[in-house]
Design a protein that fits this description.
alpha/beta; 2 domains; binds zinc ion; 308 residues; disordered C terminus; Glutaredoxin
């Protein structure tokens, strides 16, 4: 017999990934049966040391309810909203941990997710946090703040992208370069979406987007950016995703050790030489190969783990 959790997962992932056209055939999860049990704030297993969390809970403090699952603590006002978020969050946690090919980090620290229900509360919160321009969420010091807006329910990899940041933060709490953090979040969440759909007999390949060669940001400039540049947000995300995809598909094992090196704040050139030295002798050699790869339109024939 299928467990309730599996049924909810199926329904939720379909809701998240397929979009409004197919909603009619998808049974809604029944919150009466499957809703996350609410937990009193004082009984939560962990607190969020992030000051932004405290600021969020101070907005209409009477509205907040709380719950937790294996890897996450949720703060929300509507149980109908939090249940599918919790299923997606745990799903993406497993996907990212698998992509990184390692056990979860030592300790049992959970990531906190704050779900705002109304546009006014969200606006008020946005003025104190810095919104990630491309996905519409705020991730800060391992916590995630979202408005459960149509953007998060109507499909795509937005929640997966944000969850990827949370999981990365657990493995690399001291931070990794912005291009790598954003590029990996895009790469892994696009792959998760495609494999979920394929498992349900949809023909789906990760939708990796090519970048026009004349728009490409030189790698030295990309590496130095500490946040996505306002005037080239789309290029920044697409190019960072392509670079992660390029490095991961060139050699997955090298990519993981390269990631660890950048997580230890080694300079890019050093990490590149140590992990990809046999493939790219210099950063310039990498750049030349990458420019070609980044601007190539793969269309629907792109393989998840392969180049083109
Ligand atoms: Zn991001």
């Amino acid at each position: 017999m299928l467990s309730l959790a599996k049924i909810v997962l199926g329904a939720v992932m379909l809701l998240g990934f397929v979009g409004p056209a197919s909603l009619a055939q998808v049974p809604m999860p029944s919150p009466g049966l499957n809703a996350l049990p609410e937990v009193e704030f004082s009984r939560l297993s962990q607190r969020d040391p992030n000051p932004l969390g405290q600021k969020a809970l101070a907005i209409h403090p009477e509205q907040w309810k709380h719950a937790e699952t294996e890897h996450f603590v949720y703060h929300f006002s509507d149980p109908f909203t939090v249940t599918p978020v919790s299923v997606e969050a745990e799903f993406h946690y497993r996907v990212v941990a698998k992509a990184l090919q390692r056990e979860q980090p030592a300790g049992d620290t959970k990531s906190h997710i704050y779900i705002f229900q109304t546009a006014t509360d969200w606006k008020q919160f946005q003025s104190i946090g810095r919104l990630e321009p491309w996905t519409g969420g705020i991730h800060s010091q391992g916590s995630l703040f979202i408005q459960r807006s149509p953007g998060f329910t109507a499909g795509g990899n937005l929640l997966g992208h944000e969850i990827a940041h949370l999981v990365m933060h657990r493995y690399y709490p001291d931070g990794i370069p912005c291009w790598l953090d954003e590029g990996f979040a895009q790469y892994v969440s696009k792959g998760a979406r495609a494999s979920y759909l394929r498992a349900r007999n949809y023909i789906a390949k990760p939708q990796s987007r090519a970048v026009d060669e004349e728009k490409l940001i030189p790698l030295a400039e990309l590496m130095a950016m500490t946040s996505p540049p306002n005037d080239r947000v789309k290029t920044f995300y697409d190019e960072s995703e392509r670079l992660v995809r390029f490095l991961a598909s060139s050699d997955k094992a090298s990519f993981l050790t390269f990631l660890d090196a950048l997580g230890r704040h080694q300079p890019f050139e050093t990490a590149l030489l140590q992990n990809y030295g046999t493939k790219f002798l210099t950063a310039a050699a990498l750049e030349e190969k990458f420019r070609e790869y980044a601007s190539k339109e793969f269309g629907t024939s792109l393989q998840e783990s392969g180049g083109g």
